[in-house]
Design brief:
Number of helices: 3
Strand content: over 45%
């Protein structure tokens, strides 16, 4: 069985008497042929081998000039030198020459390339939930943030500060953390909104809603936030390769006005016969996209819970909804179910996930990403980024040329974060795993999964200690339904 050597060498070892082989090096993560943004953290990698690795020597040359050299127990690049090389080769490529020392002998492998995109990332970093991949208890979890230019990771809020409460749905406004919302589930449940540094801790439930305020998405103006209210249940499979299922007893969508603490409902998106879920605003703020399915009466019929993509008009000036619902993608007709719609911020694309049934795609191995052209209505499987395992929850960067999404393509169990680029014609690039200083040590010795990722234009400023005291105090501001 292949393993990754983490042997630390006491000093560098210069390749000599090198044997050349006509095969690519077996590296972890697989970064061969990926497209990266200028300024990303170094894409360090380990060598996969069933023999002890004594040293790794890598020379990287840019097609537009410049080079850097690394010699260590794994391919570990200097951050500043890496940034300088990627900046000099924006729109070009990098060629990697890898030599590996094993049993006192050096082997040079076939060169491979990475490509430096012409598209800027324009984001400081990522936010995401980090959680152990358990089924019955959520254990240690938190909302974390990561600087994409280096390897610095820090907690925004962690449930060790909240006596084990579940910290889940979080969202900023078009990657700007001036508007942020976090949902807390448990005995001290709450919906916490932070607007321009001021926190507002809301009661998790309004009895008139029949559920909590979950799956948030900000209006581009920041004046509204759309939510679902869901009554979810989970069950466990007795079938090999199927572990858990999350399904809705009922769900509706609504828009919330933070200034007035009013819930804005409408009978067209709050029905007894249908489950409406996961609302998102269009980039111009005049449309709400959401998913809907016919309500399943018997939980044993969960495989008949299948969602389509719908839309309804929204007037930001009055907070009123339109008078009709349109179906944009009929997944039910395909025998499938659509979940997690996310429009690009330039209004050109809709990224969504397609599964066999339900909407909680992280437990569906067949889960794949699809891309819709919002101008033509044409949709296709996003084969450039899909794998043979679960590919799921996703978000766009602010210029709509980069996405972050979750995938279990690594080991089939842990959900990791991947990034990919999209061009003007909607063509994607080979995704790459979120870089780490020592990838093998970080990922394969970690018990955590990563989900609900989003880009962040800057580091989130959040007083987690004060927020934790407010949450644990159970003092809540109440919401009201607009009459």
């Amino acid at each position: 069985m292949l393993s990754l050597s983490l042997l630390l060498v006491a000093c560098s070892s210069t390749p000599e008497n090198v044997t050349t082989v006509d095969q690519l090096p077996s590296i972890y993560p697989d970064y061969t042929g990926v497209t990266i943004p200028d300024g990303i953290a170094p894409l360090n990698f380990n060598i996969r081998s069933d023999q002890e690795v004594e040293a790794v020597d890598v020379v990287v040359k840019g097609s537009k000039g410049g080079q850097l050299h690394a010699n260590d127990a794994w391919a570990r690049f200097d951050v500043d030198e890496w940034h300088a090389l990627t900046a000099a080769n924006k729109g070009g490529d990098l060629t990697f020459t890898v030599c590996v020392k094993q049993d006192g002998k050096w082997t040079q492998y076939k060169d491979f390339k990475m490509y430096v995109s012409k598209y800027d990332l324009e984001e400081w970093g990522l936010t995401y939930r980090r959680i152990a991949p358990g089924y019955e208890v959520f254990s240690h979890m938190g909302i974390y943030q990561r600087d994409l230019a280096n390897f610095e990771e820090s907690a925004i809020i962690d449930n060790t500060q909240l006596l084990g409460q579940c910290v889940n749905c979080h969202m900023t406004n078009r990657t700007n953390p001036d508007r942020m919302v976090v949902h807390i589930r448990g005995d001290h449940g709450a919906t916490l909104m932070q607007i321009d540094g001021q926190r507002d801790v809301l009661a998790a439930k309004n009895e008139l809603l029949g559920g909590s305020m979950v799956y948030p998405y900000w209006h581009p103006s920041g004046d509204y936030c759309a939510f679902s209210t869901n009554q979810t249940r989970q069950g466990f499979h007795e079938i090999h390769n199927e572990r858990i299922e999350v399904f809705d007893l009922s769900s509706d969508i609504f828009v919330y006005n933070p200034k007035t603490r009013e819930i804005l409902e409408d009978s067209l998106v709050s029905t007894k016969e249908w489950s409406e879920n996961s609302p998102v605003f269009s980039p111009d703020g005049k449309t709400i996209y959401y998913m809907t399915c016919r309500q399943v009466e018997d939980p044993h019929d969960y495989k008949n819970e299948k969602y389509n993509l719908c839309s309804i008009a929204f007037d930001p000036a009055t907070g009123r909804y339109g008078n009709k619902v349109d179906t944009l993608f009929n997944a039910v007709r395909m025998g499938k179910s659509l979940t997690w719609p996310r429009p690009s911020y330039d209004g050109k694309w809709m990224l969504f996930t397609l599964i066999d049934y339900g909407y909680f795609s992280i437990w569906h191995r067949e889960s794949d990403q699809w891309l819709m052209n919002l101008q033509t209505g044409e949709s296709r499987p996003f084969t450039e980024i899909n794998s043979d395992n679960t590919d799921s929850y996703h978000n766009w960067n602010v210029n709509s040329h980069w996405i972050v999404f979750t995938s279990r393509r690594g080991d089939g169990l842990h959900t990791r974060l991947y990034l990919a680029s999209i061009d003007e014609n909607g063509r994607g690039t080979k995704p790459f795993l979120l870089p780490q200083e020592n990838p093998w040590e970080y990922y394969d010795e970690s018990l955590y999964s990563f989900n609900t990722p989003d880009f962040s234009s800057r580091k989130v400023e959040f007083d987690s200690h004060a927020a934790a005291r407010e949450i644990m105090s159970d003092k809540r501001n109440t919401t009201k339904v607009r009459q």
